[in-house]
Amino acid sequence: MKQINHIISYSVFENEAELSEVDISLFKSAKSAMAKAYAPYSKFSVGAAVLLEDGTVVLGSNQENIAYPSGLCSERTALFAAGSNYPGIKVIKMAIVANGDLLPKTAVLSPCGACRQVMAETTSRQQVPFEIMLLNPDGTVMVFDGIQDLLPFVFGS
Ligand code: THU
After folding, report:
1. pLDDT per position as a tens digit, 69-128
2. Which residues line ligand 1 (CB under 6 A)?
3. The CA-based dihedral angle spanning residues 126, 37, 63, 54, taken in that order and rounded to the nearest 10 degrees
4. Are 150 and 116 in contact (CB under 8 A)?
5. Domains held by the chain: number
6. Backbone phi, then psi, for 68, in 5-degree steps?
7. pTM of the full structure
8. Which of 47, 58, 102, 120 is deepest in the core (most CB within 10 A)?
9. Is residue 1 part of a domain?
């Protein structure tokens, strides 16, 4: 038997103002995506903006349904839109924001497991990691270099 320690890395920024201009702009796009959320049931609006290698920004927001499981999270909406409309163009980074009382102020705006799985598929499809940036309810920003730090031991790894 041997004990293995698995290290997960990420950066934490005090607020958005500490980010690069590109990242600030991507968060702005994520907020504009969030404004288009359809979340009458949870009243929790989520927005995601995906930056592609050619500079294209693809937006996604959560789209709920009265039959709850039929709805979709913002991250998957954005990644599926990117895959549908820009196949073969790599994802460089993704910014995620949310607004609503579902999460306490101290929570991390952590993508759900299903969205992580889809992020992993995008990564294996393009053979290169993409950055995942979360704007937490307290205003701090967490930046992950890739899905490997959010979903270790993904199926197929
Ligand atoms: N939601 C997202 O859009 N992304 C996540 O990673 C977690 C949750 C959405 C789904 C649902 O519309 C609402 O937030 C409440 O769970």
Report:
1. 999 999 999 999 999 999 999 999 999 999 999 999 999 999 999 999 999 999 999 999
2. 39, 42, 44, 46, 62, 64, 71, 73-75, 102, 111-112, 115
3. -20
4. yes
5. 1
6. -40, -50
7. 0.96
8. 47
9. no
Active site residue 75: yes
* Backbone φ and ψ of 140, nearest 5°: -75, 155
One-letter amino acid of 95: A
Element (DSSP H or E) covering residue 54: none
Segments forming the whole domain that contains residue 121: 11-149
Q: Per the structure block, which two tokens stand in for 89?
A: 């163009």
The percentage of residues in the chain with a pLDDT greater than 90, rounded to a whole number, is 99
Q: Is residue 5 part of a domain?
A: no
CATH code at 70? Answer: 3.40.140.10
**Percent of the chain predicted with pLDDT > 70:** 100
Residue among 14, 16, 18, 75 flagged as catalytic? 75
Instruction: Tell me the pLDDT band of 156, cut-offs 50, 70 and 90.
Output: confident
Per DSSP, what are the bridge partners of residue 4? none
Give all strands (DSSP E) within 2-90, no chain letters: 11-13, 45-52, 57-61
